[in-house]
Design brief:
The chain is an alpha/beta fold. The chain has 14 helices and 21 strands. Helix content is 32%, strand content 24%. The structure holds NADPH dihydro-nicotinamide-adenine-dinucleotide phosphate (NDP).
């Protein structure tokens, strides 16, 4: 008997989550199509994590060159070739998009190139052609949100364009102080741009541990980034005859910059994909509402990743997509666990975290002891860099479990990834204490913190 539907599953969105769900579903024997209007890869591969991290690596050389002098190197004035970097980055992105295409081909997933619109509970239309499926998975991610401030939407770039500028701006104003704002501030400052960070809070990175926020603020200032804390942008003008935009702040300051970047959050990317007509329910932030099985209010339609606005990180979207495919097509009861999801901000220096902040633990009424350290890492002694590594453990005294670990400093992301396994496994402070350090490292501090704050 011929199948009722063209496919068992149509996934809309060929980003990290959609590709994983499609590939795993096909591996379980499902007939799968993925709809993508751009190349495969999505935000992370094409416009986010990957190109951003390549630029972060590039920018970090600036500090290395400066520090090298303390170790006896004479390297003169380093010169950077921005177009060469952007070209090399794009070659790498082409390679990765090709790998994603290969993953789909090898898994037997049909790639439908074009913009997908959900035109029925079991129907997707791609550039005028209609396909049917037993289930539809929405994995369309998010898109930069730029607030409605006079001139901002007309003149500001978002992270999409910031990753692909033909020239490095000499002076840039970045609005916001979330992940994207602080990462790009580090990138542009590293490559020598005069960089302003304008943000409305007292400290960057709202929601992160207070000591990390303060440490990053100090480090960014030391690295030459001009911080405009507690400030809002009132207006942005187009470029004047000198090629500069005029940015007016609510504290009366006026900045002149070659580029203005809004890093003011991302919104679910659902405009025009037909969800309202079908009655797919959204939450108050415009994200698709789903149950624990990733199912929307229309039973045949599912959603994963940033479009559901739970934890907006690539590995979370991948885990959600994998879980969806295993549950529906692999008869496995795989559930997503949103506790203790580690994350890193690739600022310069980087910051990484797993578990609760001190503030969250206190807010939850947990009895806590806090172990904190702030020190000059060994590399910074003879390099002369006066930058502090900041580390922090939050311990629940009721059961001795380590419930939060935070680090600002070199290799923080690499270090916290390992520590996250211990936290996930329920390690106690006694387990940390019983672990022998690797000497000399900064990370060994995590197993040698003996005195809690206030003791
Ligand atoms: P965030 O939500 O992290 O930060 C948004 C920033 O914009 C905040 O500083 C916020 O201020 C500010 N803001 C928003 N609206 C306004 C406004 N109207 N006026 C003034 N300031 C405003 O978003 P990002 O764009 O940085 O990143 C989006 C998401 O992408 C993140 O949530 C993260 O999940 C993901 N991401 C993860 C990365 C990683 O894992 N390394 C890297 C990059 C992105 P306030 O704090 O005061 O609200």
């Amino acid at each position: 008997m011929a199948p009722i539907y063209d496919f068992d599953l149509i996934t809309i969105g060929g980003g990290s989550g959609g590709v994983r769900a499609s590939r795993i579903a096909a591996g379980h024997g499902a007939r799968v199509a993925v709809v993508e209007e751009d190349r495969l890869g999505g935000t992370c591969v094409l416009r986010g994590c990957v190109p951003k991290k390549l630029l972060v690596y590039g920018a970090a050389f600036a500090a290395d060159f400066a520090d090298a002098a303390g170790f006896g190197w004479h390297i003169g004035q380093p010169v950077h070739d921005w177009p060469a970097l952007i070209k090399a980055k794009n070659v790498e992105l082409d390679r990765l998009a090709g790998i994603y295409q290969g993953l789909m081909d090898n898994a037997g997933v049909t790639v439908l190139q074009g913009r997908g619109v959900v035109t029925g509970a079991h129907e997707v239309t791609v550039d005028g052609k209609t396909y049917t499926a037993e289930r539809i998975l929405i994995a369309v991610g998010g898109w930069p949100h730029i607030p409605d401030i006079p001139g901002l939407r007309d003149h500001a770039i978002s992270s999409n364009e910031a990753l692909d500028l033909a020239e490095r701006p000499d002076e840039i104003v970045i609005m916001g102080s979330g992940y994207i704002a602080v990462e790009f501030a580090g990138i542009f400052a590293g490559f020598g741009a005069k960089t302003h960070l304008v943000f409305r809070a007292d400290q960057p990175l709202r929601g992160f541990d207070q000591d990390m926020r303060q440490g990053l603020m100090d480090a960014m200032r030391d690295r030459g980034i001009t911080l405009h804390a507690g400030a809002n942008i009132m207006s942005v003008s187009g470029a004047d005859d000198t090629g500069k935009h005029i940015v007016t702040l609510d504290n009366g300051q006026i900045l002149h910059a070659d580029a203005v970047m809004a890093a003011t959050g991302r919104s679910p990317n659902i405009a025009g994909i037909g969800l309202d007509a079908l009655g797919v329910l959204l939450n108050s932030k415009g994200a698709i509402k789903v149950n624990d099985a990733a199912q929307t209010s229309v039973p045949s339609i599912y959603a994963i990743g940033d479009v559901t606005d739970r934890i907006n990180l690539t590995p979370v979207a991948i885990a959600e997509g994998h879980g969806f495919a295993d549950r529906i097509y692999g008869q496995q009861n795989r559930q997503m666990d949103y506790n203790n999801v580690p994350s890193a901000v690739f600022s310069q220096p980087p910051l990484a975290t797993v578990g609760l902040t001190e503030e969250q633990a206190i807010e939850q009424g947990l009895p806590v002891k806090v172990y904190a350290a702030s020190f000059r890492a060994m590399k910074n002694t003879i390099s002369g860099r006066d930058e502090k590594t900041v580390m922090k453990l939050i311990v629940n005294t009721a059961n001795d479990k380590v419930i939060g670990v935070h680090m600002l400093g070199a290799d923080a992301a690499e270090i916290i990834q390992g520590i996250a396994i211990a936290v996930k496994a329920g390690a106690t402070k006694a387990d940390f204490d019983a672990t022998i350090g690797i000497h000399p490292t900064a990370a060994e501090e995590f197993v040698t913190m003996r005195t809690a704050r206030g003791e």
